[in-house]
Structure formats: structure tokens, C-alpha cells
């Protein structure tokens, strides 16, 4: 990774950007959103940031070794973002995409997903292999990659309940249903989670799906 030229697209607040940079990559961040870009500038002032999106990358042809999309590819139109990826990658370069899914064997996470589905009158399912969820849609348009170029990695983090609820409330489903519906759910969810995590610290568990393609 050291010295590799990487463009992190849909960089958001820079979570992946920071990790790539810490591994010695020369990273450039690309982000369309005003708020996200402002936060990235505050937390990673040393990382170059270009405003733009994956459908029309503001980057030169053949300029990077690795193009990364951390939970952001699904916002693009692959009819445009895939040729754009091929254009900006150097010959032999790679496109890495990843996506956090909910594990299917952690009961409180499964139950929470059911509660969200019930509250908002639909299905809320981000679980690999479960009936309502097909992981490939988050990698839509990317040609199939061989087995050795995909991984599922489990990871977890322990966060204050407020952090967990804020993260949940930032999901698009909560945003589209409006503040009062979201607030009502989050208030009830706080009570339920305090029964499971009485210390107020929540252990979130994720299975991150990763694919590396050579478009
Ligand atoms: C779920 S966030 C992921 C942010 C960051 N990569 C991370 O892992 O924390 C998705 C990001 O994609 C960005 N985005 C939205 N539309 C996009 C597009 N067409 N091309 C690239 N990024 C886009 C959003 O502004 C947001 O920052």
C-alpha cells in the first residue's frame, strides 16, 4: 500500500480515506456532498479533496493504482461509473468496493432489523444471504470477480448507545420517513437496547463484503 496512488470515491467524512492514508498510500478523496466534504476537510486537512462524483470523476486518465468505494458504489450509475473507473485506473490497477452487512447470527441485530421494518412498514434487511437482501445490488454493474477477489470479514466495535442510535438514524430509510417517525423509533429503541446493554455500550457486529475488480 505504501506509495500507491489511491482515489477514495464517495469518501464521506473520510473514514476509509484516513485508514488508506495511515497505510502509506497517497490518497486523494472525491466527495459530492457539502456537509461530508466539510467534515473531511476538518478531520483530514492534509488529504487532497476534490468535489465530484463517481459518474464523472474529476480525475485524469490513468492516474491511480487503486480506486476505492467504501459503501458508496450504490449511489452511482454503473453505466457511467464503471467506464470512469476504467479510465482513471492505470493499466493493471484495481477497483475495490466494500459494504457492511448485518450478520445473521446475532439475535439483537436481527430483532432490531425486524422492528425497523415493522415501524416503517417495509423490510429493513441488510443481511448477506437473507431473503430480502441480495448483496450484489451494492456492487451493481461490476463484472463478476473470481473467488480469490472477494472476502467477507467480520468485525465489531463497541460504541456508546448514542453513537449507535445516531448511526442508525443517519440511514436513508430514517431520513426519508421524516424526523418525527425516526425520533419515535429511536426513543423506543433506546429503551430496548438499554435492557440488552445496561452499561450503555453497544457491541455492533458487521460482516464487511469486499470485492476487488479489474475493470
Ligand atoms: C454511506 S456514505 C460512505 C462514506 C465513506 N466512504 C465511509 O465509508 O464512511 C456514502 C457516500 O457516497 C457519497 N455519494 C453520493 N452519491 C455519490 C456518487 N454519485 N458518487 C460518489 N459518491 C457519492 C455520499 O455523499 C456519501 O459520502
TrEMBL record:
InterPro entries noted in UniProt: Diverse_substrate_MTase, Methyltransf_11, SAM-dependent_MTases_sf
Keywords: Methyltransferase, Transferase
GO terms of molecular function: S-adenosylmethionine-dependent methyltransferase activity
Domain (Methyltransferase type) ranges: 8-96
UniProt keyword Transmembrane, yes or no: no
GO biological process, alphabetically ordered: methylation
Keyword Transferase: yes
Record SUPFAM superfamilies: S-adenosyl-L-methionine-dependent methyltransferases
Pfam families linked to this entry: Methyltransf_11
Family statement: Belongs to the methyltransferase superfamily.
This protein's name: Class I SAM-dependent methyltransferase
